Amino acid sequence: MSRQKLVEMTRQAIAHSKQGTTEQTAEVVRIPATDYHDPERFRREVQGIFKRLPLMLALTAELKQPGDYKSIDACGVPVLITRGDDGEARAFVNSCSHRGSIVVKEGCGHAKRFSCPYHAWTYDNTGKLVAVYAPKDFGEIDRSRHGLTPLPVAERAGLIWVTLNPASTLDIDAFLCGYDEMLAHFGFEDWHVEAQNQVTGPNWKIAYDGYLDLYHLPVLHKDSFGPKMPHQALYHAWGPHQGVTAPHPRLSALEKTPDDQWSDEVLLGGVWTIFPHVSIASFNGGGRSVMISQLFPGNTPLESITLQTYLMQNEPDEEQRKAARKQFDLLDYVVREEDYALGLRQQRALQSGAKSHVLFGRNEGGGQRFHRWVKRLIDIDADDDDALAKLFAEARS
Fold first, then answer.
1. Is the pLDDT of residue 59 over 80?
2. What is the pLDDT of residue 260?
3. Which of 27, 83, 120, 133 is the most exposed, fewest CB within 10 Å of its CB?
4. Which residues, including other chains, have CB under 8 Å from residue 262's CB and lie 6 or more apart?
5. Cβ neighbours, 10 Å, residue 17
6. Are 350 and 358 in contact (CB under 8 A)?
């Protein structure tokens, strides 16, 4: 059924292309400008969204073998993700049970045990406390009660989601609304991590607006790749998650071929966003590839951090690697010097108070939907996981 959905999406894009039309909502929507810089609003977003919902924190490609791990800071929460000998991905708060020190520095690696740099308390890759330094001097404790604090985790479609609240009862599959079935067609489990980068940007919603927006491509990116791109967008939703496709004229050539012969590469074109912070965009530099952007709020409403991963379907040879490097460098430039540079200027203008609202047009349904979800979620009481589950269940039905 999920492949048939991809075919239907592509047929819809072909129809719009032939008719010269695009998808439109009922009306233009106004969003308060203060939503992008108000400190209290920002606090509610971090607590009500980023510290409550599952976040895509790692790729299966980063933890392919038992013993592989990834340490990452997510909204101020240190997270350690491990691959156990049983092949299972697990996630923990990366904080020693002795004095709370961070056990593993940020980054990826391979280890079966993790020793805290402060007092050498040691944990295995299932989070168990397996050794206490100088135990006779320290005194008796029940080691089974002092392991690393586990976090809810799920691995789907070659991606790993973690919820930062250890007490969360929200089912990650419910949150995904079936979206992982679509993403599974990429086959990310077997892909290759070629390059990674970090970019500082504006308020997280200004950045995320751009990932959903094709309207700006021929304008803002007129000196890079924009002239080749259509500005129309078609949006497909699975709860808060959205696939963004364009009615590109080249898709019409598919009509000459039976749809069971349409490649996954064609069917998965466009941008796939995972609420609240991930964008997956397809490219072909050095071979089939995607750039996965993981967006996190910064310490204030005025900043964000984006982790960029250039993922390739196959490990490249030397010539393909050169082409891939050129493609990744271009993407880094476009995001840093075009998208985020403009976003930072946009943010300063909004802070001036000159505009009370920003507008999302009838052709910008993805942005409208995104902001509706942000508001719905921050309006739900912080501890009401049942209300969250009900919201996602209704969205899926």
1. yes
2. 92
3. 27
4. 7, 10, 254
5. 19
6. yes
28 and 99 co-located in one domain = no
**What's the one-letter identity of residue 287?**
G
* Structure-derived torsion over alpha carbons of residues 278, 282, 286, 288, reported in degrees to the nearest 10: 110
Residues 6+ apart with CB under 8 A from 39: 300, 301
Residue linked to tokens 């050794």: 131
Clarify whether residues 214 and 354 are in a common domain. yes
Enter the tokens of residue 1: 């059924």
The answer, yes or no, to whether residue 238 has pLDDT greater than 90, is: yes
| Residues 6 or more apart in contact with residue 277 via CB below 8 angstroms | 50, 55, 56, 204, 208, 294, 295, 296
Q: Indicate whether 285 pLDDT > 80.
A: no
- Structural domain contains residue 357: yes
Given the DSSP bridges, would you call strands 241-245 and 54-59 parallel, antiparallel or unpaired?
A: unpaired
Query: Is 88 contained in some domain?
Result: yes
Overall domain count for the chain: 2
pLDDT attached to residue 284:
83
Least confident range from 17-31, 56-70, 83-97, 216-230: namely 216-230
**CA-wise closest residue to 170 among 319, 13, 385:** 385
The pLDDT of residue 230 is 82
Q: Are residues 352 and 228 in the same domain?
A: yes
One domain for residues 98 and 212: no
CATH number at residue 84: 2.102.10.10
pLDDT band at 286 (very low <50, low <70, confident <90, very high): confident
CB 162 within 8 A of CB 294: no
